[in-house]
Structure formats: structure tokens, C-alpha cells
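Running co-folding for hexanoyl-coenzyme A.
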Amino acid sequence: MTRVSAEAAHPKRQVFSRDALAGRVALITGGSSGIGLGIADVFADLGANLVLTGRRPDKLEEAAERLAPSGARILTIASDVRDYAATQGVIERTVAEFGRLDVLVNNAAGNFNCPFEEMTPNGWRAVVDIDLNGTFNFCHTAFKALKASPYGGRIINISLAQVSSGWPGAAHAASAKAGVTALTRSLAVEWGPHGIRVNNVLPGPIEGTEGLRRLYEARGEGEKELNRMALGHFGETDDIGLSCAFLASPAGDFITGCDMTVDGGRWLKRSWT
Ligand code: HXC
């Protein structure tokens, strides 16, 4: 893929210079599909080198092939964010291969629709372990490397606007992401003196993602959710990727502890009916 065709396919990316993230090493959890892959695609196009993690090696391989035309150096590591020791290994390998880590995007998430009274303790635990404890694992193990980043380390946590409205049928995910949001704010203060900026990005429903499919479309709720969007349409992965790029770039130097809501105004319509 040439630059010209990349620009034609992704017109919004033209607001950034092509080297906005040049020299950065960015690690994206859950980077092989959906929003994570969308962030990776934008970052690669803006000059970053990437480490992508996910549970399935085949999907990671596919993602790396898809991103190859960008010319980015891409390391894929199959790993489950719930495993602290494995996470330590991911960070060690990142530093061994690239010499450092500048941007950490905690994107890996689990979710399914289930009435609270029917949710098993294990179902609750699975989602909290992926979303909240997985974010702990990566923030905790990445600290030293992020502190050493010459650009000022960045953590971008993918959270949810539903932490304030509640989310009937997904109380596990809303609760876990509320924890992520609080962790973000706590670390923004604790690690500010180390130059590490820590922010939340709060996506709304994004076209073509597993979240939209399983939470709404597969349940025949796609149209209803669409009617809850202030802008009247779902987002694209580029909408999230470009917001993350802004925070990861020098444009985000003075931003820490913020909630960047990128949801087409979905949160304003708090209705669930
Ligand atoms: C009820 C369910 C269930 C369902 C799983 N469980 N799916 N309960 N309804 N649909 C229960 C299982 O019965 C089990 O409990 C427990 O959850 C763990 O399930 P496993 O399949 O063994 O776990 P695991 O393989 O670790 O998978 C984790 C997972 C899975 C979260 C359950 O769905 C997953 O891997 N998801 C990753 C992809 C994903 O969810 N993407 C969407 C993210 S969307 P018992 O008691 O039976 O052992 C998002 C934001 C969306 O985050 C925003 C939309 C606008």
C-alpha cells in the first residue's frame, strides 16, 4: 500500500503529520482485532513501532501482515493479560527487542450480555480479571520502562462512558471499567512526577467490532443502539485510533488524568430502552 492510497482510505489521518509518532515504541494489548488493531493501524501509519499482544497467535500473525505495508517494526506476542508473569515477560521482551517502551495502550477487554442475577462468579471474575486486573498487570510491569522513555511515557486506558450511567446486562464490564477509570486518575497523580501521562479513552459503539456485534447486533438491538447516538451513526476504529494518537503525540504533552469520550454523543442519551 502506498502513502497515497492509505490517505485515500483513511482521510481523517491527514490531520496528523506522517511522523507524529516517529521513534515511539507502542505496546497495544488486544491488538490483533477490533479497536486494538485500529489503534495499531493508526500508530503504524504515523511512524510508531509496535508490540501487539493477544491470546491467539494466528490472529496476531494476520494483524502483523495487515500492518506490514506501513513499514513499522512489529513484534507480536501471544499472551493473556490476566497472567502477571507472562505480562512481565512481554515487557522484558519489548525492552530487549526495541530498547524501550514509550506508549502503553491497555485495550484488551472481555464482555458479554448477562442479567446480573444469572451471572456466575466465574463470569464476573473473567471480565474483571481481563479489564481491570489486566490493566493493573501492564501498568505495574511497564512502570520502569515508561519512566525511562525520552518522550515522557504514556498510558492510554480504554475505558467506557457506562461507568457513570451503569450498564444493565453488563454490570461486570461497567464495574471493571470504573476501576480502570479510577486507576487512571490515581496513576496520573502518582506518576506525573515521572513524566508519565495516564489517560482514559472512552469509545462508543464502533462499526465492525466484536463489542458492537455481541452486545447489540447479535441480540437484535443494533437499531435501538443506533437511535441512542446523538450523531446518529456508529464510530470507526480510526476515530479511536486518532484520539489515542493525539494523546500519544506531543499534542498530548499537557494532558493527564482525562476522560476522552469518543462516542458520538452516546453517553448523553442515558436511555437503555
Ligand atoms: C453468561 C458467560 C457468557 C455469556 C461466558 N460466560 N460467556 N455467561 N453469558 N454469554 C461465563 C462462562 O460460563 C464462565 O463461567 C465464565 O464466563 C468464563 O467463561 P470462559 O469462556 O471460560 O472464559 P474465557 O475463555 O476466559 O473468556 C473470557 C470471556 C470471553 C470474557 C468470557 O467472552 C472473551 O474472551 N471475550 C473477549 C472478547 C470480547 O469480549 N470482546 C468484546 C469486548 S466489548 P462458568 O461459571 O460457567 O465457569 C467491550 C466494550 C463494548 O469491552 C462496547 C460496546 C459499545
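Result summary
The longest strand covers residues 197-203.
The domain at 3-257 is CATH 3.40.50.720 (Rossmann fold).
Job closed.
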